[in-house]
What does this fold into?
Amino acid sequence: QLAGLAVIAFGLWLRFGGVMADFASEKKSPEYFFMGLYVLVGAGALMTTVGFFGCCGAARESQCLIGAFFACLLVIFAAEVTAGVFAFIGKKVAVQEAQKIYEDIYDDYMKNPAGKVNSTIYRYHLALQCCGKGNMEQQMGLPCPENIQKVSNCLVEIQNIIDADLHLVGIVGIAIAGITIFGMIFSMVLCCAIRNTRDMI
It folds into this structure.
């Protein structure tokens, strides 16, 4: 249950509290990246629910509930492995989506520097701590934060941030997978112990 709540909190933080959350306020957003976070939050909710039923099964010493708990953990473990592979394969797509959003905003700003997109591109520069797409010509005239110590390429920063976020997701996934394996082992041990106790009686 605690692991499930931690996964929910982590997924919501990445979705609404991280740097990438700024990309969700526009008409276009990196759906591939956010879809992975929604799956993560859903898995956390499922783990919390399954953990509750596992506790009930252990308290009531019900082999049926504990067996169902084991089956659910097995499904969650398979889903985690699948999601991990999916995230690894889809990382390039998520990076390309986010970069395309920035490039579209950059092009809109170049066409109309005084328009509404001025504040939008500045917000991205402030969140990503970058300015433009690389060379000095592409940075001149852009609304860049004044406190940037080193002007960097926004496309590179987007890739770095997504790589870092997915790295964190991978670490959390491995930790949760380990907890799931221990949960399956202990549930089987408990189920066998209950069965042996009843056979002795």
In short: The first helix runs from residue 2 to 17.
